[in-house]
TrEMBL record:
Name assigned to this protein: RNA-directed DNA polymerase
Family: Belongs to the bacterial reverse transcriptase family.
Residue intervals of the Reverse transcriptase domain: 24-243
GO biological process, any: defense response to virus
EC primary class: transferase
Reactions catalysed, as given in the entry: DNA(n) + a 2'-deoxyribonucleoside 5'-triphosphate = DNA(n+1) + diphosphate
Length: 386
C-alpha cells in the first residue's frame, strides 16, 4: 500500500558517483551550480493560463536520467499512483474509476514548487535510507532555487513520493469504505460505486486537504469538482476524460475540436504542406487522433486514414538543410560518435530524411545509405546512463 525501494543502498557520495558513472567531482560541480543548468519558459494551459517550466541542460538531463534509472525507477509504486510509471498514464487513472456513481476530483495548488528542497532531502534520507551526504547531493541535483522544478527529468518521480509516509493511511481507510482513491501527480480523484451523502463528500475533501496541509500543500478550492450519476447534468470527469457512460471517453467538445483539426489539415495541405505551421498542426492532430484510438473511439480510424493522405512535406530549403545535416554528421570521426549529442543529431537526421522520402525517394535512399555508414558507436541508453 505504500512505495517500496527495491534497489541497492548507496552508502557514500563515491558510491553514488559510481552508480551514475560519473566522478564525485563532476557531481559536486553540477550540483553546486544546478540553477544555472535550466532554461525557463512558459507553456499555455488548457484553461488559458500559463505554467512555468524549467528545462534542464543536456549535461544535467543526463545526470537526472541516470538518477531515474539507478534510483527512482527502482521504486515499487502502489497501484493508486499514476504518472511517469509504466502502463499507468492518465487513461489508466480514469479507468480505475470506471462505473463510479460519485466522483470527487481535487487539484493541488502549485504542486511542484510546493515540494521544497528539505522535503526532497527527507525523501532520499528517510524513504531511500541514504546517508546525509548522498541525500543532500541528490536533493541539490533534483531541485532548482530550493524547490522541485516542473520540467526536470526527476520531478515526476519526486512528486509521486512527496506523500510517501502518509498517503497510504488515507487510501487504506477509504478502501475499507469501498471507495477508490487515485493520484496522477497533482490530480486526486476519489470515487464511490454507490451514492454518498453530501456530508460524507464534504468530509472527503476535508480529509484530503488535511493530509496535504500536513506536508505543506494546499487545495485549489475552485478546482474541486463533485459529480454524481444521480444528477444527469453532472459531467463525470477524471483527468480530462469523461466517465458518464462507464469507460473513459473524450468529451464531445474535444472530439469536435479534433474533427475540425483533421478537416483543417485536409484543407491546408492543398495549398502548402511545407510550412512549419502545417508540420506543427499535423503532428499535434496526429497525437490527438492517437488518443482517440487509444480510447476506442470509432472515428479514429477514419481520421488516421485522412492524415496519412495529408502528411507534411519539406520545402527545397528544408531539404537542403537536411542534406547539410547529413553531411556534417558524416564528417564526425569514429571516436566522436559515442556522445549523447551525436546520437541525438543522428536520429534527428534520420527523422528528417524520412520526411524527405515523401517527395524524393531516391535522395532519401542515398542519405539513409550515407547515415548507415556513420551510425553511433554506442546505444542511446548507454550514452545517457553509462
Amino acid at each position: 500500500m505504500r512505495p517500496v525501494f527495491k534497489g541497492k543502498p548507496i552508502a557514500s557520495v563515491d558510491a553514488l558517483a559510481r552508480a551514475l558513472d560519473l566522478s564525485s567531482q563532476q557531481l559536486r560541480t553540477i550540483a553546486g551550480s544546478v540553477s544555472g543548468h535550466y532554461r525557463d519558459f512558459e507553456i499555455e494551459k488548457r484553461d488559458g493560463g500559463f505554467r512555468s517550466v524549467s528545462g534542464p541542460t543536456e549535461e544535467l538531463k543526463i545526470v537526472q536520467r541516470r538518477i531515474n534509472r539507478q534510483i527512482l525507477t527502482r521504486v515499487d509504486f502502489p497501484s493508486y499512483l499514476y504518472g511517469s510509471i509504466p502502463e499507468r498514464d492518465y487513461v489508466q487513472n480514469a479507468k480505475s474509476h470506471a462505473r463510479a456513481h460519485v466522483i470527487v476530483a481535487v487539484d493541488v495548488k502549485n504542486y511542484f514548487p510546493s515540494i521544497k528542497r528539505t522535503a526532497v532531502f527527507s525523501i532520499f534520507k528517510n524513504f531511500f535510507h541514504f546517508p546525509d551526504g548522498v541525500a543532500s547531493l541528490l536533493a541539490d541535483l533534483c531541485t532548482k532555487d530550493g524547490q522541485v522544478p516542473q520540467g526536470a527529468c526527476t520531478s515526476s518521480y519526486i512528486a509521486n513520493l512527496a506523500l510517501h509516509d502518509i498517503e497510504h493511511r488515507l487510501v487504506s481507510n477509504l478502501r475499507n469504505e469501498g471507495l477508490t482513491y487515485s493520484r496522477l501527480i497533482d490530480d486526486i480523484s476519489i470515487s464511490s460505486p454507490r451514492p454518498l451523502a453530501q456530508k460524507r463528500v464534504e468530509s472527503l475533501v476535508i480529509q484530503v486537504a488535511e493530509m496535504l496541509k500536513s506536508r505543506g500543500f494546499t487545495l485549489k478550492r475552485p478546482k474541486t469538482k463533485i459529480a454524481s450519476k444521480s444528477n444527469a447534468a453532472d459531467l463525470m470527469e477524471v483527468t480530462g476524460l469523461w466517465l458518464n457512460r462507464g469507460e473513459p471517453r473524450v468529451r464531445r467538445e474535444e472530439r469536435d475540436k479534433i474533427r475540425k483539426e483533421v478537416r483543417q489539415c485536409i484543407q491546408e495541405c492543398r495549398f502548402d504542406r511545407t510550412s512549419s505551421e502545417y508540420h506543427e498542426l499535423h503532428n499535434r492532430t496526429s497525437g490527438r487522433v492517437a488518443m482517440l484510438a487509444q480510447l476506442s473511439h470509432p472515428e479514429a480510424g477514419r481520421y488516421r486514414s485522412a492524415l496519412k493522405l495529408t502528411t507534411p512535406h519539406y520545402s527545397p530549403v528544408e531539404i537542403k538543410k537536411t542534406c547539410k545535416l547529413v553531411a556534417s554528421i558524416c564528417k564526425v570521426p569514429v571516436r566522436g560518435r559515442d556522445s549523447a549529442s551525436y546520437i541525438h543529431r543522428f536520429f534527428q537526421a534520420r527523422y528528417r530524411v524520412n520526411i524527405v522520402g515523401r517527395t524524393d525517394t531516391g535522395l532519401a535512399r542515398e542519405l539513409h545509405h550515407r547515415l548507415s555508414r556513420h551510425a553511433p558507436t554506442m546505444k542511446k541508453e548507454e550514452a545517457i546512463y553509462g
